[in-house]
C-alpha cells in the first residue's frame, strides 16, 4: 500500500519534470551539451585525441562537449548507440575506417551510409617496420624475399581484419607477395617484433615512436604518397614502387538526417579547432597528423575508402 | 538428498549444458581461417568437452567425491532470492527508463521497506534521498562522469 | 646525481605532493568501496589530469593506482567482496578472519605487506629495470601460455573440498570469457547476433556481481538477526598485527613480492595471476595448509604482497619499452603522452629527471598510503557495525554505478546482475567461486596466446617446448597437477570443514528453523 502511494507520488513529480525539459530547435543549435561517443576505452591515443577535440569544440560552441567511451565489438557498440539516438546533432561520434572494417567483417548490420559526415580531423599512416638488425634495408628487398617464399614473412598485426592487417595486406598485394599475418591483441604486436618472434610489424606510427627514435626498429615503408612529418627519413611505399596508399582517418559523424545547419555549425567549429596551436601540440604528442576536410569531401573519402576496404576484405577472405 | 544423488543430479545438468554449449559452438562459430590451425572455435569446443567430461565424472563416481549436500531450499529462501533479483532487474530496467536520479530512491525504499522490513519512514526516506544525492554529487558534479540516463525522462 | 636531485625536486613540488596524496587517498577509498574499483577512478581522473602540470597529473594517477591496489583488500576482508580482481584471492582467508572478529589484524597485515611489496618492487625497478625489461621481451606467446597454464594449475589448491567441483568452476570461468568478439579474428562467439553481447564479459563487472550480489542475498535472508550477514558485529575490535607476527611471514612475503614483480613485468599477465600464484605458493609451503581458507594470516599476506609488487613490475615495461601491461598502466601511458612524454628507452636518456620523479612519487605514495590507512583501518572496521539495511542499499546502488561507469554500458549492469545470479547458484551448490575468477582472469590470455604461438610455428606444438622458460613452467604445471591428484587419490575423504567455507548452507539451515 505504502509502496503504491510512494510510486504514484514519484510519478506525479516525474511528470512535472518532463514538461520542463527544453525543446530542441535547429535554429539555436547548439543549446545544450553535445555528447561525443568514443569507440575505445579511456587512455588510448584515439581517445586522447577525441578529448582534445571535444575540449576545443566546447570552447568554440559555448556548450559542454562530454566524451563518453562506449567500447566493444570493435566499434559496433558505439556506432549502434549513436544510430539509435535522435538525429538532432547532439550525439556525435568520433569515427574512423572502423565503420567499414567492422561492417564488412559482419559485426555491424549497417555501414557508413547510416551516418552523415561532419568533418575529417586527422590521419595516421600505417608503417611496415623491422628490427634494426634485420637483413632487409629497403621495402623492395623485403618484398622480394616475401615473393620468393610465400607466407614465410611473419608480420604482426593488431587482430585479423583490423585496420593494420588490411593495410598490411594492401602493401603485400601491391608488392605481389604474401605474408603470414600474426594477430596480437593490444600492444603485444610491437613487443613480439622487439622480442624477435616476427619478421616485421604493421602498426600506426604512434605505437612505434619510442622504438624508432631509439633505433631499435627501422621503418621500411610508410603506406602513403607523402612522408611522415614525424619521421621524415622514412620512405613511403609509393616512392619505392609499391603502389599501396591506405591511411587511417578519423573524424566526426552524426546520424543520417541531422539538420544541415547543425552539420555546418559543427564543421565550422571543428575547422577552427584543428587550426589551433593547442590541438596541433596534442597531435605532435600523440603522433597523428591533423588533416581537416570539410563535410562534403570527408563524405567522399569515407565512401571511396569503404569500397576499397570491402574489396580487400573480400579478397582476404577468399584467399584463405 | 544424499551426496550420491546430488552429485548425479549436478553431473547430469552440467553434461547437458556442456552438450548444448558444444552444439552451439559448432553451429555458430566458424572454423579457423587457416585450415588445420586452432581458430576461434577451438577453445570453446575444448572447454565444452572438458565440462562434459567433468559432468560425467560427477555422474559415475559419486561415492568417491566428497561433496557437501546443499541444504533444502525453503519457501522463505525462494521468496527472498526471487525478491532480490526482482529488485535488481527492476532497478536496471528503471535506470534505463527514468535515469539514475529517479530510479535510485525507489529502489532504496524497496530495499528498506520490503527486503529489510524497516518500519521507520523517516529513516527510509532520508536514506532514499541521501544515497542518490551523494552519488550524484560525487560522480556527476565531482568527476563529470556519466550515470545511467533515462529514455523516458531524464534529470541529469 | 644532479638529475636525481632535479627529479626529486619535481616530485616534491607542493602540487605534485598534494596530487600524489589525493590520488593515494582516492584510490584507497574507491578500492575499499564494494562495486567501485580503481580502474573506474583512473578512467574518471584521466581527463582531469590534462590541465595539470605533468608531475601532478602523473602523481594523481600513480597514487590512485597504488592506493587502489592496497584498498582493494579492505572490502575483500570486511565484506567478502574484493575491491579489485587482484584482491579476489584475499577473500579466501581475509573474510573468515573478519568474521572471527580479527578484521583489524587482517587489514593491518594486508597494509604492511602491501607497502612492503610495493616498495620491494620499487627497489627492483630502480636498480634492475633494464634487466627485467629483457625478461618481458623474452616472454612470447608460448612462454605466456605456459605461465598461464601454471597459474591455472593453482585451481587444484583452491578447491579444498572437491577437486572436480574446483575444476568445474575453473572451466565455467574460462567459458564465460570466450563470449564476445574473438580478439584475434574479430569473429563473434556465442553472442547470438546481439551487438551488446559483443562487449563480452568484463572482468571487473563480473567480479562485482559474483561477490557482491550473493552477499546482498544473504543480508536479506537474515535480516531478522543473528545470522552471518553484513553488519553483524555490534562492537568491533581493531587489533593490529604484532611485530612478531609480521616477522614470521617475512620470508614468504619477500618471495611473493619477487614473484609479483616478475609477473607484473610480463605484459598481459597482471595482478590477479600473481595473487593466486602467491596464495597457492603460501599454502603449499605452509606448515599448516589445512588452515587455509579458514582465516590463515599467511593467506592474506601472500596475495596482498604479490599484487602490490605487481604495480612496480608493470611500470617497468611501461617506462622502459612504452608498453603498458594492464588497463591501469594503459591509462597512465595516456597521461604521460598527452603531456608530451614518450615512455621508452629514450625516456631514460632524455627525461631521466621524470623517471626519478616517478620513482620518488611511488615511494611518497606508499608513505601516504601507510599513514592514511593506519588511521583508516580503525574507521573502515566500523563498517562492520553499520546496520545491514544501510550497507545493503549502498552496496546495491554502488554496484550498479560501478558496473555501468566502467564502459558506460547498461548491458554491463544486466551482466553484473546475471553474474550475481550465477554466483549465488554456485555458492548454494558448494562450488567455489575463486576458481571461476581465476578462469576468467586467465581465459582470454590462454586462448589468444595458444593460438598465436601456433600461428607463428606453423601449427607445430613443439613451439611450447623450445625455450627453457616455457619448459620450466610447463614442468611446474605438470608437477602441481600430479602431486595434487596423487594426494587426492590416497586420501579421497577430506574431513568436513567448519562453517566458514560453506556459510550459505548454515545460513539457510538457520533460516529454515524459524
Question: Any overview of this molecule?
Answer:
The complex is a heterotrimer of chains A (320), B (156) and C (514). Helices cover 43% and strands 18% of the residues of chain A. With 320 residues, chain A is an alpha/beta fold. Chain A folds into two domains: 32-124 and 248-316, Bordetella uptake gene, domain 1 (D-Maltodextrin-Binding Protein, domain 2, 3-Layer(aba) Sandwich), CATH 3.40.190; 127-246, Periplasmic binding protein-like II (D-Maltodextrin-Binding Protein, domain 2), CATH 3.40.190.10. Chain A has a six-stranded mixed beta sheet, with helices on both faces. Chain B has two domains: 3-60; 75-142, no CATH class. In chain B, 38% of the residues are buried. Helix content of chain C is 71%, strand content 1%. Chain C starts with a helix and ends with a helix. Chain C has helices at 2-11, 14-32, 38-49, 54-79, 88-99, 103-138, 141-153, 155-158, 163-176, 203-221, 243-248, 250-265, 271-284, 298-321, 327-338, 347-350, 352-381, 388-407, 410-429, 434-456, 468-490, 503-512; strands at 180-181, 188-189. Chain C has one domain (2-508). In chain C, strands 1-2 form a two-stranded antiparallel ribbon. Chains A and C meet through helix 2, strand 2, helix 3, strand 7 and helix 7 of A and helix 3, helix 6, strand 1, helix 15 and helix 20 of C.
Please tell me the total number of domains of chain C.
Answer: 1
User: What spatial order of strands do you see in the largest sheet of chain C?
Assistant: 1-2
Number of domains of chain B: 2
Structural class by sheet pairing and helices of chain B: mainly alpha
Radius of gyration of chain B: 24 Å
Number of helices of chain B: 4
Question: Could you give the count of β-strands of chain B?
Answer: 0
Quaternary state reads heterotrimer
What is the string of SSEs of chain C from the N terminus onward? Answer: HHHHHHHHHEEHHHHHHHHHHHHH
Overall geometric form of chain B: flat
Count of β-strands of chain C: 2
Computed over alpha carbons, the radius of gyration of chain C is: 22 Å
Structural class of chain C: mainly alpha
Task: Determine the mean pLDDT of chain B.
Answer: 90
Q: Which regions of chain C have little confidence, pLDDT < 50, spanning 5+ residues?
A: 225-231, 495-514
Main sheet record of chain C:
2 strands, antiparallel
- The termini of chain B sit apart by 53 Å
Amino acid at each position: 500500500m505504502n509502496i503504491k502511494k510512494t510510486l504514484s507520488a514519484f510519478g506525479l513529480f516525474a511528470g512535472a519534470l518532463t514538461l520542463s525539459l527544453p525543446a530542441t530547435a535547429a535554429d539555436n543549435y547548439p543549446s545544450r551539451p553535445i555528447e561525443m561517443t568514443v569507440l575505445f576505452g579511456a587512455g588510448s591515443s584515439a581517445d586522447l585525441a577525441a578529448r582534445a577535440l571535444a575540449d576545443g569544440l566546447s570552447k568554440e560552441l559555448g556548450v559542454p562537449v562530454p566524451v563518453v567511451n562506449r567500447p566493444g565489438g570493435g566499434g559496433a557498440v558505439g556506432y549502434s548507440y549513436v544510430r539509435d539516438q535522435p538525429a538532432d546533432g547532439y550525439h556525435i561520434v568520433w569515427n574512423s575506417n572502423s565503420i567499414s572494417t567492422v561492417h564488412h567483417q559482419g559485426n555491424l548490420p549497417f555501414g557508413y551510409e547510416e551516418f552523415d559526415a561532419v568533418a575529417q580531423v586527422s590521419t595516421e599512416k600505417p608503417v611496415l617496420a623491422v628490427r634494426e638488425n634485420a637483413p632487409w634495408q629497403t621495402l623492395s628487398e623485403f618484398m622480394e624475399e616475401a615473393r620468393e617464399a610465400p607466407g614465410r614473412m611473419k608480420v604482426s598485426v593488431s587482430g585479423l581484419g583490423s585496420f593494420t592487417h588490411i593495410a598490411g595486406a594492401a602493401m603485400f598485394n601491391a608488392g605481389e607477395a604474401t605474408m603470414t599475418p600474426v594477430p596480437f591483441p593490444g600492444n603485444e604486436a610491437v613487443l613480439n617484433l622487439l622480442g624477435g618472434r616476427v619478421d616485421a610489424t604493421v602498426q600506426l606510427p604512434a605505437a612505434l615512436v619510442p622504438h624508432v627514435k631509439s633505433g631499435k626498429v627501422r621503418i621500411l615503408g610508410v603506406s602513403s604518397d607523402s612522408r611522415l612529418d614525424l619521421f621524415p627519413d622514412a620512405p613511403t611505399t609509393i616512392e619505392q614502387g609499391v603502389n599501396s596508399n591506405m591511411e587511417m582517418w578519423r573524424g566526426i559523424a552524426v546520424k543520417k538526417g541531422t539538420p544541415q545547419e547543425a552539420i555546418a555549425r559543427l564543421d565550422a567549429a571543428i575547422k577552427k579547432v584543428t587550426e589551433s596551436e593547442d590541438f596541433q601540440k596534442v597531435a605532435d604528442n600523440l603522433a597523428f597528423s591533423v588533416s581537416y576536410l570539410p563535410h562534403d569531401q570527408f563524405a567522399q573519402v569515407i565512401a571511396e575508402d569503404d569500397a576499397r576496404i570491402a574489396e580487400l576484405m573480400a579478397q582476404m577472405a577468399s584467399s584463405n | 538428498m544424499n551426496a550420491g544423488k546430488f552429485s548425479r543430479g549436478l553431473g547430469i545438468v552440467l553434461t547437458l549444458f556442456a552438450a548444448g554449449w558444444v552444439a552451439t559452438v559448432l553451429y555458430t562459430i566458424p572454423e579457423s581461417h587457416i585450415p588445420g590451425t586452432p581458430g576461434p572455435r577451438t577453445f570453446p569446443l575444448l572447454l565444452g568437452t572438458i565440462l562434459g567430461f567433468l559432468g560425467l565424472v560427477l555422474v559415475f563416481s559419486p561415492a568417491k567425491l566428497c561433496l557437501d549436500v546443499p541444504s533444502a531450499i525453503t519457501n522463505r529462501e525462494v521468496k527472498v532470492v526471487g525478491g532480490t533479483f526482482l529488485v535488481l532487474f527492476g532497478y536496471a530496467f528503471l535506470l534505463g527508463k527514468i535515469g539514475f536520479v529517479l530510479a535510485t530512491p525507489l529502489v532504496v525504499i524497496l530495499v528498506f521497506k520490503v527486503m529489510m522490513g524497516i518500519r521507520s519512514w523517516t529513516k527510509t526516506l532520508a536514506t532514499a534521498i541521501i544515497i542518490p544525492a551523494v552519488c550524484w554529487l560525487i560522480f556527476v558534479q565531482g568527476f563529470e562522469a556519466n550515470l545511467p540516463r533515462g529514455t523516458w525522462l531524464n534529470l541529469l | 646525481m644532479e638529475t636525481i636531485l632535479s627529479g626529486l625536486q619535481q616530485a616534491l613540488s607542493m602540487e605534485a605532493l598534494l596530487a600524489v596524496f589525493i590520488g593515494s587517498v582516492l584510490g584507497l577509498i574507491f578500492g575499499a568501496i564494494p562495486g567501485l574499483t580503481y580502474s573506474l577512478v583512473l578512467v574518471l581522473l584521466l581527463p582531469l589530469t590534462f590541465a595539470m602540470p605533468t608531475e601532478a597529473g602523473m602523481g594523481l594517477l600513480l597514487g590512485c593506482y597504488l592506493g587502489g591496489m592496497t584498498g582493494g583488500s579492505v572490502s575483500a576482508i570486511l565484506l567478502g567482496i574484493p575491491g579489485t580482481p587482484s584482491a579476489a584471492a584475499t577473500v579466501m582467508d581475509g573474510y573468515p578472519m573478519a568474521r572471527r572478529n580479527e578484521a583489524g589484524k587482517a587489514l593491518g597485515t594486508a597494509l604492511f605487506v602491501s607497502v612492503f611489496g610495493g616498495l620491494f618492487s620499487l627497489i627492483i625497478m630502480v636498480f634492475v629495470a633494464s634487466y627485467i625489461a629483457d625478461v618481458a621481451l623474452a616472454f612470447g606467446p608460448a612462454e605466456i601460455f605456459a605461465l598461464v597454464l601454471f597459474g591455472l594449475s593453482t585451481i587444484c589448491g583452491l578447491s579444498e573440498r572437491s577437486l572436480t567441483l574446483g575444476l568445474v568452476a575453473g572451466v565455467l570461468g574460462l567459458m564465460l570469457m570466450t563470449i564476445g568478439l574473438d580478439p584475434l579474428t574479430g569473429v563473434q562467439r556465442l553472442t547470438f547476433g546481439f551487438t551488446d553481447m559483443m562487449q563480452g564479459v568484463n572482468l571487473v563487472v563480473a567480479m562485482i556481481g559474483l561477490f557482491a550480489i550473493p552477499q546482498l542475498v544473504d543480508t536479506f535472508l537474515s535480516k531478522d538477526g543473528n545470522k552471518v550477514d553484513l553488519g553483524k558485529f555490534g562492537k568491533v575490535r581493531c587489533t593490529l598485527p604484532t611485530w612478531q607476527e609480521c616477522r614470521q611471514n617475512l620470508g614468504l612475503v619477500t618471495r611473493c613480492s619477487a614473484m609479483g614483480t616478475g609477473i607484473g613485468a610480463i605484459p598481459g599477465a597482471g595482478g590477479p595471476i600473481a595473487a593466486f600464484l602467491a596464495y597457492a605458493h603460501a599454502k603449499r609451503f605452509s606448515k599448516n595448509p589445512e588452515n587455509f581458507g579458514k582465516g590463515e594470516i599467511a593467506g592474506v599476506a601472500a596475495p596482498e604482497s604479490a599484487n602490490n609488487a605487481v604495480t612496480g613490475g608493470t611500470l617497468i615495461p611501461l617506462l622502459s619499452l612504452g608498453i603498458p601491461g594492464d588497463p591501469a598502466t594503459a591509462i597512465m601511458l595516456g597521461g604521460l603522452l598527452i603531456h608530451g612524454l614518450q615512455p621508452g628507452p629514450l625516456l631514460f636518456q632524455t627525461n631521466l629527471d621524470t623517471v626519478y620523479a616517478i620513482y620518488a612519487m611511488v615511494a611518497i605514495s606508499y608513505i601516504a598510503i601507510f599513514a592514511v590507512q593506519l588511521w583508516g583501518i580503525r574507521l573502515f572496521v566500523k563498517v562492520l557495525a553499520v546496520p545491514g539495511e544501510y550497507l545493503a542499499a549502498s552496496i546495491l546502488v554502488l554496484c550498479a554505478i560501478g558496473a555501468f561507469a566502467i564502459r558506460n554500458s547498461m548491458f554491463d549492469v544486466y551482466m553484473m546482475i546475471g553474474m550475481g545470479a550465477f554466483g549465488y547458484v554456485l555458492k548454494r551448490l558448494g562450488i567455489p567461486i575463486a576458481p571461476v575468477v581465476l578462469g576468467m582472469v586467465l581465459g582470454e590470455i590462454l586462448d589468444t596466446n595458444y593460438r598465436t604461438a601456433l600461428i607463428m610455428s606453423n601449427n607445430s606444438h613443439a613451439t611450447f617446448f623450445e625455450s627453457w622458460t616455457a619448459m620450466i613452467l610447463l614442468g611446474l604445471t605438470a608437477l602441481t597437477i600430479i602431486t595434487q591428484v596423487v594426494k587426492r587419490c590416497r586420501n579421497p575423504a577430506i574431513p568436513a570443514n567448519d562453517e566458514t567455507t560453506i556459510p550459505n548452507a548454515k545460513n539457510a539451515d538457520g533460516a529454515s528453523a524459524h
